[in-house]
Design goal:
38% of the residues lie in helices and 17% in strands. By secondary structure, it is of the alpha/beta class. It has one domain: Alpha-Beta Barrel (TIM Barrel). An eight-stranded parallel β-barrel has the order 1-4-5-6-7-8-9-10, surrounded by nine helices. Helix 1 crosses helix 2 and helix 6 packs across helix 7. It starts with 11 loop residues before the first strand and ends with a helix. 51% of the residues are buried. It binds ligand PBG. Ligand PBG binds next to loops. The site of ligand PBG has 10 residues, from loops.
């Protein structure tokens, strides 16, 4: 009766991978229980999650290796894998789910960066990337996305996307901004799942945040809110509880937190060895993320937590 925090199924968003060119779903070794889906199997999975009461899913499209190019053009192709998956899911479950799409280039580029590369400097070109993000967002909205979620941490990405959506009849499509996103080693299993590898052993420290900085997150979050973000996200979750609390205090839009692949994989690995109770730890961690101030949590535990929370 006096509990201050209640985790419910309404708080959960399930990340789902959809890969092009698969005949059947494929397990991801470093993310037990997570699959690379086909467009058909992802629609069935979303239907299952909706039946469990999960209100939202976020799709990550993965192109065939031979379809990657330096601009990541399959990310904004009208018949790209994300766009086809969005349409298939929408067809199957109608309006019963909030359908989100990760809006980024790294899965689609040959070099694995979240933006295009300036040939002179060899660095990611922030401003040249913005029109491509705008094109991704438009194509995802056309394919049926309710929410686009820019995760590439380019300066100005939210404004560019908001303008692109508003000027093409998609004023009702929301932007969930990966606002405070740290350059984290906890994304390791995701890169496995998404088959993303940065060529030449590079990293994302030029555009993702330094884990040592807390106030910097507020600069990022405020910019995104000013540019029109409808939801701001903090990522990863457990190493950013202080940041989640700061953001919750400072802004009035919903705050999401992403319990990322490495956070999920650690719990699964320890549970597999019998070293801890995976279900109990999942409940504890995601409840703590809510206690810190998150309104929504993106987690690979979404389906399992929905079962636990609803007794299904
Ligand atoms: C970028 C993106 C990443 C994740 C979500 N969007 C990878 C990265 O920034 O390297 C990571 C999610 C996770 O680890 O679960 N498209």
């Amino acid at each position: 009766m006096v509990a201050e925090t209640r985790l419910t199924v309404d708080d959960l968003i399930a990340p789902l991978f959809v890969a092009d060119g698969l005949d059947e779903p494929r397990p991801v070794a470093s993310l037990p229980g997570v699959l690379q889906h086909t467009t058909a199997s992802v629609a069935i999975e979303v239907e299952r999650l909706v039946a469990l009461g999960v209100p939202g899913v976020i799709l990550f499209g993965l192109p065939r290796a031979e379809d990657k190019d330096p601009e990541g053009s399959q990310a904004f192709a009208p018949d790209g894998i994300t766009q086809r998956a969005l349409a298939t899911v929408r067809d199957r479950v109608g309006e019963s789910v909030v359908l989100m799409a990760d809006c980024c280039l790294d899965e689609f580029t040959t070099h694995g960066h979240c933006g295009v590369i300036d040939p002179r400097s060899g660095q990611v070109d922030n401003d040249a990337t913005l029109p491509l993000y705008a094109a991704i967002a438009r194509s995802q909205a056309n394919a049926g996305a309710d929410v686009v979620a820019p995760s590439g941490m380019m300066d100005g990405q939210v404004g560019a996307i908001r303008y692109a959506l508003d000027s093409t009849g998609h004023a009702g499509t929301a932007v969930m901004a990966y606002a405070a996103k740290y350059a984290s080693a906890l994304y390791g299993p995701f890169r496995d799942a998404a088959q993303v590898e940065i060529a030449d052993g590079g990293d994302r420290r030029a555009y993702q945040q330094d884990i040592r900085n807390r106030r910097e997150s507020m600069v990022e979050v405020r910019l995104d809110v000013d540019e029109g973000a409808d939801v701001v996200m903090v990522k990863p979750a457990l190493t950013s509880l202080d940041v989640i609390a700061d953001v919750r205090e400072a802004v009035d839009v919903p705050v999401a937190a992403y319990h990322v692949s490495g956070e999920y994989a650690m719990v699964c690995a320890a549970a597999e060895r019998g070293w801890l109770d995976g279900d109990a730890v999942a409940l504890e961690q995601i409840t703590a993320v809510k206690r810190a101030g998150a309104d929504l949590v993106l987690t690979y535990f979404a389906g399992r937590l929905a079962e636990l929370l609803t007794g299904a």
